[in-house]
C-alpha cells in the first residue's frame, strides 16, 4: 500500500479505496482485459465452424448461454474463459492449441473452461482479491514497512534475513547459505 506509506493511516484508507476500485474494475471488465492481453480476435461461426459448434454444444449441455469465441495468435497451446457472469462470458483458444490437439482434446479443454464460466470463478477470484486488499489494509494501517533500528529493513526484498542484524557472527556454510535464520536471531 504505497499510498499508505506516504500519508499514514489516512493514506491507507485512500489506498484501500483505490485497491477496491481496481478490483471492481478488473471484475467488471475482466472479459475485455483478458482478451486484449491475449491479443485475441473474435471469430464468427463462418470463420471457425467446428470451434463454434463445439462451444455451442458444450454451453447447451452446461446450461449456460453461448459465450463469445476468440482465437489468440499465440503458438503456445492454451485456452481460457473469462467474464463476470455466464451472460458476459468469453472463451479463447490459442492458435497453438488448435494446431496441437485434435477435436476431441479441444472439446475436453473447452469443457473445462466453460466449467469456470458456469461456476463463476471470475467472481470468486474478484471477491478473494477484494478480501486480500482489505486484509492488507487492516493489518498495516499505518502503511509503514517492517524495519529495525534506524529504519533499516529487517528483511531483504528476496526474503532472507540480513546477516548484519544477527547477534553473533554467522559463518558461511551450506545451511546458512540456504537458511540464515536457522543460526541467527534478530536483535
Task: Give the structure's gist in a few sentences.
With 187 residues, the chain is of the alpha+beta class. It has 7 helices and 4 strands, in the order ααβαβββαααα.
| Terminal-residue CA separation | 27 Å
Q: Give the helix tally.
A: 7
CATH superfamily of the largest domain: Metalloproteases ("zincins"), catalytic domain
CATH architecture of the largest domain: 2-Layer Sandwich
What is the helical fraction, as a range of percent?
40-55%
As laid out across the biggest beta sheet, the strand order is: 1-2-4-3
Q: Number of folding domains?
A: 2
Average pLDDT value?
Answer: 75
Structural class given helices, strands, pairing? alpha+beta
CATH topology of the largest domain: Zincin-like
Cα-atom radius of gyration: 24 Å
Order of helices and strands: HHEHEEEHHHH
Mass-distribution shape: elongated
Q: How would you characterize the largest beta sheet?
A: 4 strands, mixed
* Structure summary, number of beta strands: 4
**Percent of residues in beta strands:** 5-15%
What is the top-level CATH class of the largest domain? Alpha Beta
Low-confidence stretches: 154-160, 183-187
Amino acid at each position: 500500500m504505497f499510498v499508505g506509506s506516504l500519508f499514514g493511516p489516512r493514506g491507507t484508507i485512500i489506498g484501500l479505496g483505490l485497491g477496491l476500485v481496481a478490483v471492481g474494475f478488473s471484475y467488471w471488465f475482466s472479459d475485455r482485459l483478458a482478451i486484449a492481453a491475449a491479443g485475441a480476435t473474435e471469430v464468427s461461426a463462418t470463420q471457425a465452424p467446428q470451434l463454434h459448434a463445439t462451444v455451442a454444444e458444450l454451453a447447451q449441455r452446461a446450461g449456460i448461454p453461448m459465450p463469445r469465441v476468440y482465437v489468440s495468435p499465440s503458438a503456445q497451446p492454451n485456452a481460457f474463459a473469462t467474464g463476470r457472469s455466464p451472460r458476459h462470458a468469453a472463451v479463447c483458444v490459442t492458435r497453438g492449441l488448435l494446431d496441437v490437439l485434435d477435436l476431441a482434446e479441444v472439446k475436453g479443454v473447452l469443457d473445462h473452461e466453460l466449467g469456470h464460466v458456469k461456476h463463476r470463478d471470475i467472481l470468486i477470484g474478484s471477491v478473494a482479491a477484494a478480501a486480500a486488499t482489505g486484509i492488507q489494509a487492516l493489518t498495516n494501517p499505518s502503511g509503514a514497512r517492517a524495519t529495525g533500528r534506524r529504519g533499516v529493513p529487517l528483511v531483504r526484498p528476496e526474503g532472507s534475513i540480513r546477516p548484519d542484524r544477527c547477534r553473533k557472527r554467522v559463518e558461511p556454510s551450506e545451511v546458512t547459505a540456504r537458511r540464515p535464520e536457522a543460526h541467527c536471531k534478530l536483535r
